[in-house]
Amino acid sequence: MGEIKLNAINTRNGSVEYEFEISEDLKKFFSGSKFIIEYNENIEKVPKSILSVPFVGNVLPIVWLTESTLFIEELDREFYYAIPKIKDGYVKMYPESKFDGKIVVSRLVKCEKDAISGKTALLYSGGVDSTYTMCTHIKEYPNLIAIWGSDVKYSNKEGWNIIFEQLQDTAKRFELSLLYIRSSFRDFDDEGALHRSFSKQLKSGWWYGIKHGLALLTHVAPLAYLYQYEKVYIASSNWPEIMPDRCASDPSIDNNVSYANCSVFHDGFPKDRQAKIKGIIDFANNSEQPILLHVCWEVQGQNCCKCEKCYRTMANIMAEGENPKRFNFPLFSEKNTGIQMRNYLYHKALDKEKVSDNWPFISKRVLENRDKLKELPYWDSFKWICKVNFADPYSFGVPLNYRLKHAKGIRGKLSQFKFYRKLHDMKCGISIND
Question: What would the DSSP string read from start to end of 275-323?
């Protein structure tokens, strides 16, 4: 059983640095880097009991799973009493794992507000989920809070500047305040070591399955105290029909987080991704304002328009009869993108690589909107999606010359040719008719 002790919290204007010590048996789970959070607000008047919350939220899962003890000098009372409920969400999600670590606090401090402010905030990345939540709660004028160090690396200033410019544009268009937090929270612990130690047991990755929801939400505590937020929204990233069993951001966990009389709400959980895209498009049409989405996993700071996440989001938009260029996919081509998307997924299926469970639902939506989509310029390059089996490479209708060109070796080329010839002989063509 190890120990983690928070020794000091050093603040200067908007910067917080945590000084902590760890027992020898836990050192393998930490990188040796400092844990620093920078707010674009002066947080020197925020009590240490609130400033402790982000540190606690980031190390608690390690404490629980290693059956260790966390020592804290002072902590917000409301957050302390929320911890058992948060842990219960993890326990139910991971019933075969022990969450037996404990937290020892020398002093609990009451930081609740005396009056209800009605103010809200939203963790905002510019992706589909958080944009949908922004659209549905726009009348509350929530503060948008972006966290640099989550999807964009703490050290990547160039990528962050591109994204932040887009976020600023959105905030300005809809008259919302935009705050940002820069944090080394993905650098100070060793996610690789944690993943290797616990992924087999948890059947999930460390960041996705354990860390990100609680880690992100607890970063907001100092701002919640300063701005007297009544509620903080975190957008759902899954929906019940395709949701993996284990995801760190889940209503059973997120909705139990609270601090300084501010509650958290996991928003949009019943909605699937296609429904969220439709909601965003409807909002953009009604407001007559462009929406700049950022979804890319491959290129930090912009949408590459060539990765699975970009293709999937463009397909979501196309399924609703809209042009993805309008939503920040500048390389979209009415003539070529649908074909490039098909070829990309064909190779995934050929290599037996699983793609997102969202694709069949996109196909279903295309069929529902078929009559409308047939009138659009990109239909000819996109209609293959109507009859495809995303696990079967031969259902994509990829031309023989393309298959032969990209088949691996002579044996692969012969296999492709024989399969195509067999289909031809059986008169079972795979092209999709109008």
Answer: HHHHHHHHHHHHHT--------SSSTTS--SSSHHHHHHHHHHHHTT--
CB 281 within 8 A of CB 320: yes
Bin 273: left if φ > 0, else alpha if -120 < ψ < 50, else beta.
alpha
CA torsion through residues 182, 306, 127, 59, sign: negative
Longest dimension (CA), the chain: 80
Beta strands in 40-149 (DSSP E): 69-76, 102-109, 119-123, 143-148
Contact 93, 119 (CB under 8 A): no
- Nearest-angstrom CA–CA distance, 312 and 87: 34
Nearest residue to 372 via CA among 320, 420, 302 = 320
Cα 277 to chain centroid, rounded: 15
**What is the chain's length?**
434
- DSSP H/E element including 410: helix 409-425
Q: Each residue of 161-192: pLDDT tens digit? A: 999 999 999 999 999 999 999 999 999 999 99
Could you identify the residue written with the tokens 């390059």?
A: 381
| pTM confidence score | 0.90
| Euclidean distance between CA atoms 326 and 293, whole angstroms | 10
Torsion angle defined by CA atoms of residues 297, 300, 301 and 305, in that order, rounded to the nearest 10 degrees: -40
Are the C-beta atoms of residues 111 and 49 closer than 8 Å to each other?
yes
- Is it the case that residue 431 has pLDDT exceeding 50? no
Among candidates 291, 242, 345, 358, which has minimal Cα distance to 127?
291
Query: Cα–chain-centroid distance for residue 429?
Result: 40
- How confident is the model over 186-234, as pLDDT tens digits? 999 999 999 999 998 898 899 999 999 999 999 999 999 999 999 999 9
Picking from 144-158, 266-280, 388-402, which range would have the lowest pLDDT averaged per residue? 388-402
Task: Report pLDDT for 432.
Answer: 43
